[in-house]
Amino acid sequence: MFSQREMPSPSTIFSAYASMTASIMLLRSMAQELIPQPIRGYLYNTFRYLIKPRSPTLTLIIEESTGITRNQVYDAAESYLSTKVTPENERLKISKVPKEKKLTIRLEKGEKLTDMYNGFPLKWRFICAETEKNSANDMHNNNNSVSVRSEKKYFELSFHKKYKEIVLESYLPFILDKAKEMKDEERVLKMHTLNTAYCYSGVKWDSINLEHPSTFETLAMEPEMKNVIIEDLNMFVKRREFYKKVGRAWKRGYLLYGPPGTGKSSLIAAMANYLKFDIFDLQLGNIVRDSDLRKLLLATANRSILVIEDIDCSIDIPERRHGEGRKQQNDIQVGNSYFLVINFHFNSFIAF
Predict the structure, then answer these.
(1) Is residue 56 within 8 Å of 47, Cβ to Cβ?
(2) d(C-alpha 117, C-alpha 293), whole Å
(3) Phi, psi of 176, deg, nearest 5
(4) CB neighbours (10 Å) of residue 45?
(5) Which of 267, 279, 254 is nearest to 339 (CA)?
(6) 176 within 8 A of 72, measured Cβ to Cβ
(7) Is 197 a domain residue?
(8) Going by C-beta distance under 8 Å and a sequence separation of 6 or more, which residues neighbour residue 81?
(9) Which among 308, 318, 321 has a CA at the least distance from the CA of 352?
């Protein structure tokens, strides 16, 4: 014969509940009296962290730039994802320039796509956030303040946490290599010039296609001098290990001078077409702050030619200011010079 437990009466349940509530209120009152607010907040946040359900998904943020330099992973992801577009994507950016072989496809902001790697999915999303800030020159004048719009672009890459090592050690290097192959196959030389319209963020590089027809075959120059330049360029390209061994940056400098029409610009274009290097045209007269110059130099791509125009007029020489020290006929022509820096890896600030 089984004994049946008696169920507690409602009054008993209510009494137990009231007693528990009173105990909780007493403990809460004592905690507020005895435990300082910072410690209470720390304990509360710790408790929430412990009871919060853990998500199995890890998300990586790949921003367009890291500080003042371009993020190579962002650029590689932008190129790589253009080959992974599916019919599920609803908005895409399409462009084409004359020398490119095919259309350039980029994701529009907010678009998502899924890539498969080693049998597991990786979810990508492109984010473009716009913000408005007051110009630094008008911060103290609220009545005439000027709002400057800026964009922050980045990719979100989400995947299961257990694949973290594979993504960091294999997948992302794979994207970097793939993007480099795509860039080498479809390389179009660019001419980069300064854009000073960004009054808040300083000067930036803008680019157009380099369509200058000059080559060493068409360049009007003495054959001996032409061969000397070509041999010097070839030696520079092949001496990577030498520069590394002696601890020098892998770059080469040239000074070109002469009156207008002597072929300085044509020679620069011929060198760029020969090496397949981009050109960055730097006019120091448009640079106000050292920090802007440092940002521009760090934003210069590898495999490029940095052209500094009129470098002999970039500083205020006392003899020129007072009209002294007249140049002789064989001296450098003032305001008609270029200084070139041909580089493979431009990773450090260079002071001229």
Answers:
(1) no
(2) 41
(3) -60, -45
(4) 10
(5) 254
(6) yes
(7) yes
(8) 107, 113, 115, 124, 126, 155
(9) 308
| Structural domain harbouring 210 | 191-316+330-343
Q: Does 196 map to a domain? A: yes
Give the angle 112-114-120 at the CA atoms, nearest 5°: 150
Buried b / exposed e over 257-269, threshold 16 CB at 10 Å, is beeeeeebbbbbb
User: Phi and psi dihedrals of 209, rounded to 5?
Assistant: -70, 140
Say what the pTM is.
0.51
Measured between alpha carbons, how far is 213 from 42 in angstroms, rounded to an integer? Answer: 68
Domain count, the chain: 2
Same domain, 258 and 334: yes
> 230 and 92 share a domain?
no
Residue 180 — very low, low, confident or very high, per pLDDT cuts 50/70/90? Answer: confident
Domain check: are 219 and 244 in the same one?
yes
Q: How is residue 352 annotated by DSSP? A: -
Residues 126, 108 contacting (CB under 8 angstroms): yes
CA–CA separation, 159 and 170 (whole Å)? 14
Let me know if residue 21 belongs to a domain.
Answer: no
Strands 304-309 and 120-134: unpaired
Convert the pLDDT of each residue in 257-300 to its tens digit: 888 888 888 999 999 999 888 899 888 877 777 878 888 888 88
Q: Is residue 28 part of a domain?
A: no
| 17-29 tens-digit pLDDT | 777 887 777 777 7
